[in-house]
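Whiteboard transcription, Tuesday session. T.W. wrote the structure tokens on the left side:
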């Protein structure tokens, strides 16, 4: 089985890790049960490191066509070799197109933004999964023939499709919190969607930013933290606390708490907000060298626990979050992080961090989770959103390949992804309010 991607050609870029910079003609990659067709100047947005593993790269000239990516369920390995390829590839291309017509089509209505994000978020960077037996396209010319239409609800998706077939599935997707989405959905009928794809557990297809994977008898030793590894990681920690923030003035009000803590603890600030940009290598080094990481989210919304939290955990750095309830309702144990709202004020929080810093045994207690959970913290490809949506589409199809009905429904997207899921200006309205109340009681 294959995973297919379809799309329109776009302007090439010179980015070194973008394969589009290497495309000058219509490209055909021929592998066992696997073909990759790239129109001139197409942008597949597949990491070049992945494409370097492909066995053979062959070039061919042919008439312009939409961009297609067809990869089978076998692993990709071996070096890449670019060699000329004659036009006899055309027959193979036609055969693949004939097979492709039998695949259910999923149309990404949000266009390029969805297309850029979807590869990583919805497939977890993987293509070789037998259950992903669908075609993906963001070309709206496929509106009438698509089995499912996928909307990224943070981006404006107007105009809405004009000719919805009764049996078509409409899926909403968001990798951001409801705070950034609900206004864009106000005028969309409340029963418009059949399937929801978000990090929240109430979704039809929940895809959280991360998850803890329990250790079992089948777990590889390489996936289990050893005492020696933990001690080695602890030896790297020379700095007190770190915060990496790209955007200042977040709706959660995190900047206010950060400003207070800067006066109380040694806090290193990295990211665009602080004017100290940091690449991936720098990011990892910074994370591993600190005892604590301020994983303050831009919004405080139900189950909104992002890579900030999970990156800290993976680095064996204790995360400090704004709100315990948000993390707890995500199913994450209480004893592996610190929550600011457990304390009466910023001073009490800072004192607690200092106590842990000076007490190695208590600090190491925050890593008891390593005895029960694996190093791996992201969902596997078997649970990827694209594959699950593809499976739902197949469940709705009869043997002949026709979509016959919609057994799924999101009863109310406003209840699922409305303003009530978030607590705006959490720091000022709740944390600071608690502090003022405490001061009033003491006076």
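and on the right, the sequence the group agreed on:
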């Amino acid at each position: 089985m294959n995973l297919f991607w379809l799309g329109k050609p776009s302007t090439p870029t010179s980015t070194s890790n973008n394969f589009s910079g290497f495309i000058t003609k219509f490209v055909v990659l021929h592998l066992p049960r696997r073909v990759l067709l790239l129109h001139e100047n197409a942008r597949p947005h597949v990491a070049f490191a992945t494409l370097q593993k492909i066995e053979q790269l062959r070039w061919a000239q042919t008439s312009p066509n939409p961009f297609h990516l067809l990869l089978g369920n076998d692993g990709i390995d071996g070096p890449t070799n670019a060699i000329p390829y004659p036009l006899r590839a055309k027959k193979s291309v036609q055969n693949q197109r004939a097979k492709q017509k039998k695949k259910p089509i999923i149309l990404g209505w949000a266009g390029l933004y969805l297309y850029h994000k979807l590869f990583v978020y919805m497939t977890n960077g993987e293509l070789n999964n037998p259950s992903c037996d669908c075609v993906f396209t963001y070309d709206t010319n496929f509106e009438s023939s698509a089995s499912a239409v996928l909307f990224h609800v943070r981006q404006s998706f107007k105009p809405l499709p004009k000719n919805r077939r009764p049996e078509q599935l409409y899926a909403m997707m968001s990798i951001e919190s409801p705070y950034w989405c609900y206004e864009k959905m106000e005028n969309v009928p409340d029963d418009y969607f059949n399937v929801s794809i978000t990090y929240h557990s109430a979704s039809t297809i929940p895809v959280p930013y991360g998850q803890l994977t329990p250790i079992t008898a089948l777990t590889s030793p390489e996936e289990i933290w050893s005492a020696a590894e933990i001690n080695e990681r602890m030896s790297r920690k020379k700095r007190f606390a770190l915060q990496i923030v790209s955007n200042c003035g977040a709706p959660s009000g995190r900047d206010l708490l950060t400003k207070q803590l800067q006066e109380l603890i040694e806090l290193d600030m990295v990211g665009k907000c602080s004017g100290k940009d940091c690449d991936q290598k720098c990011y990892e080094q910074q994370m591993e060298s600190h005892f604590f990481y301020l994983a303050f989210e831009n919004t405080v919304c139900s189950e909104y626990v992002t890579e900030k939290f999970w990156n800290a955990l993976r680095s064996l750095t204790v995360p400090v979050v704004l709100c315990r309830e948000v993390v707890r309702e995500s199913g994450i144990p209480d004893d592996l992080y610190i929550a600011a709202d457990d304390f009466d004020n910023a001073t009490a929080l800072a004192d607690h961090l200092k106590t842990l810093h000076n007490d190695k045994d208590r600090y190491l207690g925050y890593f008891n989770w390593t005895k029960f959970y694996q190093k791996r913290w992201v969902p596997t490809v078997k649970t990827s959103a694209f594959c699950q949506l593809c499976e739902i589409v197949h469940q709705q199809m009869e043997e002949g390949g026709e979509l016959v009905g919609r057994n799924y429904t999101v009863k109310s997207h406003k209840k699922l992804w409305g303003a009530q899921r978030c607590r705006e200006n959490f720091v000022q309205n709740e944390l600071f309010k608690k502090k003022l109340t405490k001061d009033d009681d003491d006076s």
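Someone added at the bottom: The chain is about 25% helix and 15% strand.
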